[in-house]
Design a protein that fits this description.
This protein has helices at residues 14-19, 23-30, 35-56, 112-118, 121-129, 133-151, and strands spanning 2-6, 64-66, 72-74, 81-86, 91-96, 101-106, 168-174, 178-185. A hairpin with a 4-residue loop joins strand 4 and strand 5. Helix 2 (23-30) runs antiparallel to helix 3 and helix 5 (121-129) runs antiparallel to helix 6 (133-151). By secondary structure, the protein is of the alpha+beta class. The chain contains six helices and eight strands. The strands form three sheets. A three-stranded antiparallel beta sheet has the order 1-5-4, with helices on one face. The protein has a three-stranded antiparallel beta sheet with strand order 6-8-7, with helices on one face.
């Protein structure tokens, strides 16, 4: 599995980068009203291109197709799995020969109502006893989001039960301003 991260969101030429990506991704990027959103969209695609070249020798711009829940895959390469995520501090891309999900979130405060809506009793207890409740909440949230992206359904009404260490493997990394989690199946895709 390859993991690619870029924290230099403002340190590239956006106009030049827009010319170097697929028309499909350029249209997606330009739908963002603000430059930051455009930059994040382009940078995520650039990380994917970098990973595809390094991991598989693919130099063409990938074209996406989407499942019914919006999860992208690369046209012509069903053997390659990837997932993209970004927050205002970083962009992350995970590429694998097995299904993968990734989520990155900025460190920030949270509201109790959000904890009650998204976390089960065990997770709430973990947050409450933590020395850093905000970081613990974000870590758990990235685990849930990465799981939802792995299975391709997005966040559902069953958000409280998304974390399942017997079914999914989690790798979480905490940086100064953000946390990211990569999620994969423990024993390959399961129904």
């Amino acid at each position: 599995m390859g993991v690619y991260i870029n924290e230099n969101i403002w340190e590239f030429d956006l106009e030049a980068a827009l010319k170097d990506i697929s028309e499909q991704r350029r249209e997606q990027a330009l739908k963002f009203k603000f430059e930051q959103g455009q930059r994040l969209c382009v940078l995520a695609y650039q990380l994917l291109k970098q990973g595809l070249q390094k991991e598989y020798g693919i130099t063409d711009n990938p074209i996406f197709e989407y499942n019914e829940h919006g999860k992208p895959s690369i046209v012509g390469h069903p053997e390659i799995y990837f997932n993209l995520s970004h927050c205002k501090e970083a962009v992350v891309c995970a590429i694998s020969d097995k299904p993968v999900g990734v989520d990155v979130e900025s460190h920030r405060e949270f509201k109790d109502s959000l904890v009650n809506y998204t976390m089960n009793d065990e997770e709430k207890a973990e947050i409450e006893k933590s020395d850093n409740p905000a970081a613990t909440f974000i870590r758990l949230w990235t685990m849930k989001e990465a799981t939802a992206k792995l299975i391709g359904t997005g966040i559902t009404n069953d958000v409280k039960s998304l974390i399942n260490p017997t079914k999914y493997k989690y790798t979480t990394t905490e940086k100064e301003s953000y946390i990211y989690t990569i999620c994969s199946f423990c024993n390959g895709p399961q129904d």
